[in-house]
Amino acid sequence: MPHIQLNQVSKSFKGVTIFENMNFAVEKGKIYGIIGPNGSGKSVLFKLICGFIFPDHGSVIVDGEELGTNKRFPNNFGIIIDRPGYIAGKTGFDNLKALALIRNKINDDKIKKTMKMVGLNPESTQKVKHYSLGMKQKLALAQAIMEDQQTLILDEPFNALDAESVENIRNLLRKFKQEGRTILLTSHNQEDIDILCDEVYRINHFKLEKVK
Q1: Which residues have a Cβ under 8 Å from the Cβ of 131 and sit 6 or more positions away?
Q2: Which of 17, 89, 197, 201 falls between 20 and 30 A from 32, CA-CA?
Protein backbone atom coordinates (compact mmCIF):
# COMPACT_ATOMS: atom_id res chain seq x y z
CA MET A 1 0.00 0.00 0.00
CA PRO A 2 1.41 3.43 -0.91
CA HIS A 3 2.25 5.79 1.94
CA ILE A 4 0.42 8.64 0.15
CA GLN A 5 -2.06 8.18 -2.68
CA LEU A 6 -4.01 10.73 -4.71
CA ASN A 7 -6.84 9.16 -6.70
CA GLN A 8 -8.50 11.02 -9.59
CA VAL A 9 -7.98 14.35 -7.83
CA SER A 10 -9.43 17.51 -9.38
CA LYS A 11 -8.99 21.01 -7.94
CA SER A 12 -9.96 24.43 -9.25
CA PHE A 13 -9.81 27.94 -7.84
CA LYS A 14 -12.24 30.60 -9.09
CA GLY A 15 -12.86 28.65 -12.27
CA VAL A 16 -9.16 28.05 -12.99
CA THR A 17 -8.32 24.34 -13.17
CA ILE A 18 -5.15 23.32 -11.31
CA PHE A 19 -5.53 19.53 -11.38
CA GLU A 20 -7.92 17.29 -13.29
CA ASN A 21 -8.27 13.55 -12.56
CA MET A 22 -4.70 13.48 -11.26
CA ASN A 23 -3.18 10.32 -9.78
CA PHE A 24 -0.02 10.14 -7.68
CA ALA A 25 1.46 7.51 -5.36
CA VAL A 26 4.30 7.94 -2.87
CA GLU A 27 6.25 5.09 -1.31
CA LYS A 28 7.99 5.40 2.04
CA GLY A 29 11.73 5.98 2.17
CA LYS A 30 12.19 7.86 -1.11
CA ILE A 31 12.84 11.46 -2.11
CA TYR A 32 10.37 12.83 -4.67
CA GLY A 33 10.91 16.00 -6.67
CA ILE A 34 8.02 18.03 -8.07
CA ILE A 35 8.86 20.48 -10.84
CA GLY A 36 6.89 22.96 -12.92
CA PRO A 37 6.73 26.70 -13.60
CA ASN A 38 5.46 29.20 -11.06
CA GLY A 39 1.71 28.92 -10.69
CA SER A 40 1.57 25.37 -12.04
CA GLY A 41 0.24 23.94 -8.78
CA LYS A 42 3.24 22.66 -6.80
CA SER A 43 2.13 24.34 -3.58
CA VAL A 44 -1.48 23.29 -4.21
CA LEU A 45 -0.35 19.67 -4.52
CA PHE A 46 1.49 19.87 -1.20
CA LYS A 47 -1.49 21.52 0.52
CA LEU A 48 -3.74 18.72 -0.74
CA ILE A 49 -1.34 16.10 0.63
CA CYS A 50 -1.17 17.88 4.00
CA GLY A 51 -4.95 18.30 4.36
CA PHE A 52 -4.78 22.11 4.27
CA ILE A 53 -7.19 22.08 1.34
CA PHE A 54 -9.40 19.34 -0.09
CA PRO A 55 -9.99 18.18 -3.66
CA ASP A 56 -13.18 19.11 -5.49
CA HIS A 57 -13.30 15.50 -6.69
CA GLY A 58 -11.23 12.44 -5.88
CA SER A 59 -9.44 11.43 -2.70
CA VAL A 60 -6.17 11.91 -0.82
CA ILE A 61 -5.22 8.85 1.24
CA VAL A 62 -2.37 8.73 3.76
CA ASP A 63 -1.47 5.36 5.29
CA GLY A 64 -4.84 3.96 4.27
CA GLU A 65 -6.96 6.79 5.69
CA GLU A 66 -8.69 9.37 3.51
CA LEU A 67 -8.07 12.97 4.52
CA GLY A 68 -11.20 14.94 5.25
CA THR A 69 -13.30 12.03 6.50
CA ASN A 70 -12.15 10.67 9.85
CA LYS A 71 -8.70 12.19 9.47
CA ARG A 72 -8.18 15.95 9.10
CA PHE A 73 -4.38 16.12 8.96
CA PRO A 74 -1.80 13.38 8.40
CA ASN A 75 0.33 12.37 11.38
CA ASN A 76 4.04 13.04 11.80
CA PHE A 77 4.49 15.38 8.82
CA GLY A 78 7.11 18.14 8.79
CA ILE A 79 5.99 20.90 6.48
CA ILE A 80 7.35 23.99 4.74
CA ILE A 81 4.77 25.43 2.37
CA ASP A 82 3.99 29.04 3.13
CA ARG A 83 6.59 30.69 5.34
CA PRO A 84 5.59 29.96 8.94
CA GLY A 85 4.33 32.86 11.02
CA TYR A 86 6.86 33.58 13.74
CA ILE A 87 6.76 35.88 16.76
CA ALA A 88 8.99 38.66 15.44
CA GLY A 89 10.06 39.95 18.86
CA LYS A 90 11.31 36.59 20.11
CA THR A 91 14.47 34.61 19.38
CA GLY A 92 14.59 31.63 17.06
CA PHE A 93 14.88 29.27 20.01
CA ASP A 94 11.89 30.83 21.78
CA ASN A 95 9.81 30.50 18.61
CA LEU A 96 10.66 26.82 18.23
CA LYS A 97 10.04 26.24 21.94
CA ALA A 98 6.54 27.73 21.59
CA LEU A 99 5.82 25.39 18.67
CA ALA A 100 7.25 22.39 20.52
CA LEU A 101 4.93 22.99 23.48
CA ILE A 102 1.91 22.26 21.26
CA ARG A 103 2.73 18.54 21.17
CA ASN A 104 5.16 18.52 24.08
CA LYS A 105 7.22 15.73 22.48
CA ILE A 106 10.72 17.22 22.68
CA ASN A 107 12.88 19.03 25.23
CA ASP A 108 15.09 22.11 24.99
CA ASP A 109 18.19 20.06 24.16
CA LYS A 110 16.47 18.57 21.11
CA ILE A 111 15.48 22.05 19.89
CA LYS A 112 19.05 23.32 20.34
CA LYS A 113 20.51 20.29 18.58
CA THR A 114 18.14 20.80 15.63
CA MET A 115 19.03 24.48 15.35
CA LYS A 116 22.71 23.58 15.18
CA MET A 117 21.96 20.94 12.52
CA VAL A 118 20.50 23.57 10.19
CA GLY A 119 23.19 26.16 10.94
CA LEU A 120 21.56 28.38 13.58
CA ASN A 121 23.00 29.34 16.97
CA PRO A 122 20.46 28.36 19.66
CA GLU A 123 22.13 30.63 22.22
CA SER A 124 21.78 33.75 20.05
CA THR A 125 19.71 36.59 21.51
CA GLN A 126 18.94 37.94 18.02
CA LYS A 127 15.22 38.43 17.46
CA VAL A 128 13.58 36.82 14.43
CA LYS A 129 12.57 40.26 13.11
CA HIS A 130 16.29 40.89 12.55
CA TYR A 131 16.91 37.53 10.84
CA SER A 132 18.07 37.46 7.23
CA LEU A 133 15.95 35.56 4.70
CA GLY A 134 18.41 32.68 4.87
CA MET A 135 18.16 32.50 8.66
CA LYS A 136 14.36 32.49 8.46
CA GLN A 137 14.57 29.63 5.98
CA LYS A 138 16.78 27.66 8.38
CA LEU A 139 14.27 28.31 11.16
CA ALA A 140 11.49 26.97 8.92
CA LEU A 141 13.57 23.86 8.26
CA ALA A 142 14.21 23.43 11.98
CA GLN A 143 10.49 23.44 12.80
CA ALA A 144 9.86 20.87 10.06
CA ILE A 145 12.40 18.37 11.41
CA MET A 146 12.77 19.01 15.14
CA GLU A 147 10.23 16.36 16.21
CA ASP A 148 11.79 13.71 13.95
CA GLN A 149 8.87 13.93 11.55
CA GLN A 150 8.94 10.90 9.25
CA THR A 151 7.42 12.58 6.18
CA LEU A 152 8.78 15.94 5.02
CA ILE A 153 6.83 18.16 2.63
CA LEU A 154 9.28 20.88 1.61
CA ASP A 155 8.30 23.63 -0.83
CA GLU A 156 11.54 25.35 -1.95
CA PRO A 157 13.59 24.33 1.12
CA PHE A 158 16.79 25.85 -0.34
CA ASN A 159 15.37 29.34 -0.90
CA ALA A 160 17.72 32.15 0.21
CA LEU A 161 20.42 29.73 1.44
CA ASP A 162 24.08 30.28 0.60
CA ALA A 163 26.09 27.52 -1.10
CA GLU A 164 27.50 26.11 2.15
CA SER A 165 24.04 25.96 3.74
CA VAL A 166 22.55 24.32 0.63
CA GLU A 167 25.15 21.56 0.83
CA ASN A 168 24.49 21.12 4.56
CA ILE A 169 20.73 20.74 4.01
CA ARG A 170 21.26 18.38 1.07
CA ASN A 171 23.38 16.17 3.33
CA LEU A 172 20.70 16.30 6.03
CA LEU A 173 18.03 15.19 3.56
CA ARG A 174 20.25 12.34 2.35
CA LYS A 175 20.70 11.25 5.97
CA PHE A 176 16.95 11.36 6.57
CA LYS A 177 16.36 9.19 3.50
CA GLN A 178 18.87 6.64 4.81
CA GLU A 179 16.86 6.60 8.05
CA GLY A 180 13.77 5.64 6.04
CA ARG A 181 12.01 8.98 5.99
CA THR A 182 9.92 10.11 3.03
CA ILE A 183 10.60 13.50 1.43
CA LEU A 184 8.69 15.50 -1.18
CA LEU A 185 10.35 18.69 -2.34
CA THR A 186 10.28 21.41 -4.95
CA SER A 187 13.23 23.50 -6.08
CA HIS A 188 13.87 26.05 -8.80
CA ASN A 189 17.42 24.70 -8.94
CA GLN A 190 17.48 21.64 -11.21
CA GLU A 191 20.72 20.53 -9.55
CA ASP A 192 18.90 20.00 -6.23
CA ILE A 193 16.36 17.81 -8.00
CA ASP A 194 18.97 15.83 -9.95
CA ILE A 195 21.22 15.21 -6.95
CA LEU A 196 18.60 14.31 -4.35
CA CYS A 197 15.52 12.80 -5.93
CA ASP A 198 14.74 9.14 -6.60
CA GLU A 199 11.68 10.08 -8.63
CA VAL A 200 10.79 13.34 -10.35
CA TYR A 201 7.36 14.48 -11.56
CA ARG A 202 6.47 17.49 -13.69
CA ILE A 203 3.09 19.19 -13.47
CA ASN A 204 1.82 19.16 -17.04
CA HIS A 205 -1.73 19.72 -18.35
CA PHE A 206 -3.32 19.44 -14.87
CA LYS A 207 -1.64 16.10 -14.11
CA LEU A 208 1.68 14.76 -12.81
CA GLU A 209 3.99 13.38 -15.48
CA LYS A 210 6.88 11.19 -14.34
CA VAL A 211 10.20 12.35 -15.80
CA LYS A 212 12.61 10.27 -13.67
Answers
A1: 92, 139
A2: 17
- The kind and range of the H/E element at 92 are helix 92-103
Rg (CA), the chain: 17
The answer to whether 153 and 184 are in contact (CB under 8 A) is: yes
Q: Which domain holds residue 46?
A: 1-76+150-211
Q: Are 67 and 127 in contact (CB under 8 A)?
A: no
Cβ atoms of residues 161 and 169 within 8 Å? yes
Alpha carbons 116 and 130: distance in angstroms, whole number: 19
Q: 27, 36 in Cβ contact below 8 A?
A: no
Mean pLDDT, the chain, integer: 95
**Among 81, 133, 92, residue whose Cα is nearest residue 116:** 92
Query: Is residue 104 domain-shared with residue 52, that is, in the same domain?
Result: no
Which pLDDT tens digit goes with each residue over 107-152? 999 999 999 999 999 999 999 999 999 999 999 999 999 999 999 9
* 26 lies in the same domain as 63: yes
Assessment of whether the complete model's pTM goes beyond 0.90: yes
The string of pLDDT tens digits covering residues 83-95 is: 778 999 999 999 9
Please indicate, yes or no, whether residues 103 and 5 belong to a single structural domain of this protein: no
Structural domains in the chain (count)? 2
**How many Å apart are CA 175 and CA 39, to the nearest integer?**
31
For 42-78, how does the pLDDT look when each residue is reduced to its tens digit (9 = 90+)? 999 999 999 999 999 999 999 999 998 777 789 899 9
